[in-house]
Amino acid sequence: MGIEGCTQMHELEKHRRDARVLNIYEGTNEVQRFLILRDLVDHVLPQWRSGVTAFNAGGFKGAAFGRLADAKNLLVRAVSRAVDAFGPQVWQNANFQPTMFKLVDIAGYIKVMDSAAWRTNWLELKTADPHSFARRTSEAYAEYAWHEIERLHEEFERDLLLLKQGLYPPDIRVAQLSLQAHEGRQAEHRVRPAHRVTRPLHVLVVLNISPVLSPRPRVINGELLETHFDIDAAGRSALQHAVELKSASDNVTVTAIAAAPQFATESLLRALALGTDNAALIKTDDLLDSPHDAARLIADLAGQKQLPCDLVLCGDAVLAAVLAGNLGQAYFSNVKDFVVAGDQTKLTLQKTDASITINGPVVLAMTDSATDLDFSVDNYLDALMKPLEIVEAAQLATGPQFDLRYRLPEKPAAAETTETTPESVASLVRKIAGVESTTQGSGSFSGKIESITPDKLPGRNAAVFIATPDKLDGIETAAATASALSLPFHVLVLGRFDEGSDRSVAARVNAESIYFASSQHLESSTPSALLAALQTIWKDLLPAVLASGTWANELLAQFARTFPRVQARYNVVEVVSRNGSVDLITPAFGGKVQRVATIGQIAEHPLVMTVAGGADSGGPKAAGNKRVFLVPLEFEYDTTTDELARALRAAHEDNGVKSIADAEFIIDVGYALRNRENFDLVILPLKKRLEEIGVKNVTLGGTRKVVEELKLLTSEQQIGQTGTAVNPKLIISIGVSGAPQHVDYIGEQATIIAFNKDADAPLMTLNKRRARPKVVPIVGDLFEMVPRFTAALKV
């Protein structure tokens, strides 16, 4: 079930809680039922048999006493038949309990009838009103108890007949058959890669240790007070790939390494039990919050110990980017699988299903995937004899330290009073997509564009936001950070620009100072080309603050790692201004808690940060006249040597479209569409209109039912647990209810425009439970609302 199943976001958590309560409270009831059944058989039945032959009303008037006598006689006969058939096994045989406990329940209802009958008799003596509420209530209780006794007796007679035939009751039989089916089911085995190792190969697995959080993590006075820690999911995936590689050849040696406090020793012992040859712990005082610190420590240890890092596997893409730079090796992220074939490593990427062949040492960031790692007690005992070295972090390289604390995510604020009509939301969609209506007069910057040389670009004492023409999110948050730190703020847009394209982008950028760095190499904005451009612009000194959107996490990590004294914060979701400093809030451990880092001393330690889409800045909007500059940029970049760019181009050409995992704008189709006719009537015109107004790469996606039952989309277009995780700028959900297995795989940067006639659907009310992704609900008949929305997009 995992940690996710323990969160209150899912109904599963409630059932788990109920099961625990049932074990506690129902356990006591089971014991009491057992004791009552034993007394009925060993003590009460003999007294009944030696006494009266039948119960009667005892001279009392009223139907209640007559029914009470009938119930007692029924119980005597039922217990007698059970004892005559099975003797003391009635209470001694645990497998009989589902049948015999019904006798105990009948006895309980007889007690209810007894109380109701005597209460009715007392009321008859004390009150003159035969129709009083109390009397009617007592009679109703007696009647209800009698009906329950009849039902239980009928079920008892049925089950007793089965027991006499040598058969257990149906619930016992179902449980046995289920267990037999489970025991007979063979585990599904993942296809193992066919590695061919022809030389000694040393594999280094970097494990990220994270807390196993309780449903409501314990954070007190800024400290995270969790007590159980383990390897995170992506780290386990990397470890499994390393162990599989080792099993393919005796030439493979695997070393597991972690930078964490002393308690990580247990996780490393488990890694040794799973098959790694040795392990090393870089002992720190606390869990590291910066991938730059972890990469610096690991690279320093590898250098001191002269570890041959032929293949390095990580679970963190940013850590992999920095570590690769520190080790002087190539790196690739988002790796689904790999095969070692001699001196080559063949990679398969997750998002685009591209394949790459690499020669020489490489660092790989593996994607989170299902694992079947397990070990025996003997494996663990063997692990205790394997080398596990502990090295103090103080003996290795150290970087700048943050004033860091933890906090729980704040509850979503009250929803903004925004009119959510199709017409008003159409304006929001145009804004998010970066396309403005031609009637608004804001489609192009009309001012002067000055030409300057690269040496005139902002330098040390400035804050600069890095963007591309299609990735402009986060500018306001970065501007608020610059304002809090009293720095001038500039936006640097990297791409290939002409007179029209730069004016169009300038109109969309909310900043007073905009620089367009233009080069033919930046036309497709590949990661390697962008990195080469940044290295050309800032060779020796970084700006005081260098910021971008989360799309640039790995790009800025690679670039900033050459400046050893930087402060790095990735995926910032909120900025809070302080006196002369700023608090940057980032999600941690799956977003269950947040880290709060206080940033200061930027004169000595430049700040590198990325901002999540929709981050809260609380800062002012840009005012005044814009100054726009065009900067011709020359740098060396050879597309033929860029393996990643070539593989991505080939994958996109083969597929014809980009993977939905990479899509920035998605139309999310729900089951409410019902058929192909409605799909053609509602979805296709919307997609066409979005493309007409200038939204690029609009991608269709949908729920599992749309893919598997309605057959409206292919399996590659399914969003969710059994499909693909997405994190677009904008997702327009049409007729999607919002099941967790679908919504939980939409990233936090997304803005969701949700059409649904049910205002209380889980997706429509998502922001009452969590702040992101932001949902803009439109309540109404989608066959009316979506066409209105489509028409409004062109206004």
Give a summary of the structure in a few sentences.
By secondary structure, this protein is α/β, with parallel strands linked by helices.
Residue-averaged pLDDT:
83
Side by side, the strands of the main sheet go 14-22-21-20-23-19-16-17-18-24-15
Helix content: 25-40%
Unreliable segments (pLDDT under 50, ≥5 consecutive)?
414-418, 437-442, 617-623, 651-657
The number of strands is 29
Measured between the Cα atoms of the first and last residue, the distance is 49 Å
What do these coordinates show?
- 38% of the residues lie in helices and 21% in strands.
- The protein is an alpha/beta fold and 795 residues long.
- The strands form 5 sheets. An 11-stranded mixed beta sheet has the order 14-22-21-20-23-19-16-17-18-24-15, with helices on both faces. Strands 11-10-9-12-8-1-6-7-13 form a 9-stranded mixed beta sheet, with helices on both faces.
- Helix 13 (475-484) links the parallel strand 16 (463-467) and strand 17.
- Helix 2 (63-86) runs parallel beside helix 5, helix 8 packs across helix 11 and helix 9 (291-305) packs parallel to helix 10.
List the helices and strands and how they pair.
Elements: H1 11-50, H2 63-86, H3 89-92, H4 97-126, H5 133-164, H6 170-184, E1 201-206, E2 209-211, E3 219-220, E4 223-224, E5 229-231, H7 233-248, E6 252-260, H8 265-274, E7 278-283, H9 291-305, E8 311-314, H10 317-327, E9 330-341, E10 344-349, E11 355-359, E12 362-366, H11 377-383, E13 388-392, E14 403-407, H12 422-433, E15 449-451, E16 463-467, H13 475-484, E17 489-495, H14 499-508, E18 513-518, H15 527-537, E19 545-549, H16 553-560, E20 567-577, E21 582-588, E22 593-599, E23 607-616, E24 627-632, H17 643-655, E25 665-669, H18 676-692, E26 698-702, H19 704-708, E27 730-734, H20 740-743, E28 751-756, E29 774-779, H21 782-792
Parallel strand pairs: 1-6, 1-8, 6-7, 7-13, 8-12, 9-12, 15-24, 16-17, 16-19, 17-18, 18-24, 19-23, 20-23, 25-26, 25-27, 27-28, 28-29
Antiparallel strand pairs: 2-5, 3-4, 9-10, 10-11, 14-22, 20-21, 21-22
Helix pairs in contact: 1-2, 1-4, 2-4, 2-5, 4-5, 8-11, 9-10, 10-16, 12-21, 15-16, 18-21
